[in-house]
Amino acid sequence: MTELTKVQMSEGPAKRWVSYRSEIKVLDCTIRDGGLMNNHLFDDGIVKAVYHACMEAGIDYMELGYKADKKIFSQDEYGSWKFCSEDDIRRIVGKNESSLKLSAMADAERTDYHSDILPANKSVLDMIRVATYIHQIPTALDIIKDAHDKGYETTVNLMAVSTVQEPELDEALSILANSEVDIVYLVDSFGALYSEQVHYLIEKYLHFAESKGKVVGMHAHNNQMLAYANTIEAIIKGANILDASMAGLGRGAGNCNMELLLGFLHNPKYSLRPILRCIQEHIEPLREKLLWGFDVPYMITGLLNQHPRAAMQFNATPDRGDLVQFFDRIIEEE
């Protein structure tokens, strides 16, 4: 039984909304997920602003970007945060003499992890997050083991889970729970899940993970304006590490808003004011150019359980106002 559940049962309805669960940790993915909207071409000032806001707000982890393979992705096309070299990270954080832990994401089959992920004692990074589709799990397991052996905390973010058949998901979770990974994330890649599905899936993830000493996390997208709500549902069911981004900045419809999440958690270790200041001064000025956040095309792909790339492409065309045309085209392609 979780601490939150005990509070709900023993101390009445008022207490359940003013207490907090101390085990919960928060990861800021503003720069990493937001970088999917601008090819990771954030200038140093914005990255430093998010870093300092995370420190001042008491956030537990900040994700800077990807460890992408330079043989696959051109450095002429993508910014520093697609690759997260040690020199680039240290240019922002120095030695990171703070309690804020730093992470980078390694995409299965898109990361030269043997050479680009240094031993942890030579890096300012603390955590490697491994993103994988279900058919890439053998590669993901290799990256997890490599990162674990190098001394990092590790997560596995199993993407597009809303498209995975249950027997395959059960097998995948069993394999992952028996790996070296520390945290297993439920990832609503397409913003397609509803609260009942989040309940069911978090319970399933915990069934496989808890007995092996693993933590379960939640990463939500906002295609149907449910990222924050679904993150709360995951908390209620026992997820103990939560992804969020400032002003929801992230791919397509964006993520759970950090400012909403911190307000909900009621943990006095977190401070909302630095987040609001960073949003006001650095994040919101990007909105007109990056065009993230809830939008009807993203809603359509979420309803249809599809990757938002079609909506992103549509929003970049002169026809972006013709929502019926987009809807008809997407339905025809189903």
Counting DSSP E segments of at least 2 residues, the number of strands comes to: 8
Label the overall shape.
globular
Query: What distance lies between the first and last C-alpha atoms, to the nearest angstrom?
Result: 42 Å
**SSE run:** HHEHHEHEHEHEHEHEHEHHHHHH
- The overall number of domains is 2
What is the CATH C-level name of the largest domain? Alpha Beta
Q: Main β-sheet, in a few words? A: 8 strands, parallel, barrel
In terms of DSSP E residues, the strand content is: 5-15%
Describe it for me?
With 334 residues, the protein is α/β, with parallel strands linked by helices. The chain folds into two domains: 3-290, Alpha-Beta Barrel (TIM Barrel); 297-333, no CATH class. 43% of the residues lie in helices and 13% in strands. α4 runs antiparallel to α12 (273-283), α9 (195-209) packs across α10 and α14 (296-303) packs parallel to α16. It starts with a helix and ends with a helix. The model is unreliable at 5-14 (pLDDT under 50).
Question: Brief overview, please?
Answer:
By secondary structure, the chain is α/β, with parallel strands linked by helices.
Please render the helix and strand layout as text.
Elements: H1 3-10, H2 12-16, E1 25-28, H3 30-34, H4 44-57, E2 61-66, H5 86-93, E3 101-107, H6 113-116, E4 127-132, H7 137-149, E5 153-158, H8 166-177, E6 183-188, H9 195-209, E7 215-220, H10 227-237, E8 241-244, H11 258-265, H12 273-283, H13 287-290, H14 296-303, H15 309-315, H16 323-333
Parallel strand pairs: 1-2, 1-8, 2-3, 3-4, 4-5, 5-6, 6-7, 7-8
